Description:
Layout: H1 2-11, H2 18-45, H3 61-86, H4 93-118, H5 127-158, H6 162-192
Amino acid sequence: MDTLTSQNIKTQKPPVAGSVLGIIMVIIVEMMFFGGLISAFILAKSGKVEWPPAGQPRLPFFITFTNMLVLLASAYTMLLYLKDLSKDMLTVKFLKMTILLGAIFYIVQAYEWVRILIFGMHTGRGLFTSFFYTLIALHGLHVLIGLLLLIWVFKIVKNQQLDKQQSFGLTVGLFWFFVVALWPVLYYLIYLD
């Protein structure tokens, strides 16, 4: 009887994969990190100084808003991919769409960043530009990491390594949702508020 019970315990899967719990912990740490940066940004903006300072180039409101919609669409395609994954459907069309939309967002943001630099918004021009480049660059780094992870999941699915795919796909999906959810907050604080 004891042998049967110990064998049953060994074969039971945990309710949540360790990789999923791990990424949840990483996301919590990332939320605290960005929360600290955003809090410092809000405090700096609340001072008596004109915000954004005069003489700074106008930030590209419309194209960045449109680009945000592209990123939000990538979250939707990721959700569709994870829905298929939960049904053990091994389609990659939604994963490809997520990668494509994420890459479009990243390329457009990089293009806009270069344009802003050309127009003269450099980090040495004050607190506003320092916060702008810190927050946007860190988000861009997270988008790049997310894209690389999505490409890795795509390769796993294409190679049909099914044992890794389900929990790893969910793990990367959770990270991608975090990256997508962070952008509207940054957009509002930096481009609108």
